[in-house]
Amino acid sequence: MSSNLDQLYRQVIMDHYKNPRNKGQLGEDTVTINMNNPTCGDRIQLHLKVVDGKIADAKFDGEGCSISLASASMMTQSVKGLSVEDAIKLAHIFYDMMLGKDYDDTSFDLGDIEALQGVSKFPARIKCATLAWKAMEKGVGNEDEI
């Protein structure tokens, strides 16, 4: 990856970290999932509103490193409006990307999520990046392991 692309990706990650999208809580009729990464102390509370098999809304609260919170911001943006099935498919594409595997970048517009692909070079940070995604899967009742 070129250094210009690395720099752009760092800027996207820092923008989501400093200006998180969908930070906060949802009202009634939501599922709340609390997860943490004991290795580094990342903690997330994810709030999902699922209506008729679609993720109608998603918000999060938490604390942790820039990778963890930026990933939560990107995930909540990406899954809103998706069917539960598509949100799970997107999560698995994300996991493949995190593990440095070939991933399907044609089924969904990955947008800012692709800024996290460099995390795959740092195995200790993969759990940071996947924490919010694992919480989302747990919230919709799909807890596969990567």
TrEMBL record:
Pfam families: NifU_N. InterPro entries: NIF_FeS_clus_asmbl_NifU_N. SUPFAM superfamilies: SufE/NifU. Residues 9-128 form the NIF system FeS cluster assembly NifU N-terminal domain. Gene3D superfamilies: 3.90.1010.10. GO terms for biological process: iron-sulfur cluster assembly. One of its GO terms (molecular function) is iron ion binding. Belongs to the NifU family. This is Nitrogen fixation protein NifU. The lineage of its organism: Bacteria, Bacillati, Bacillota, Bacilli, Bacillales.
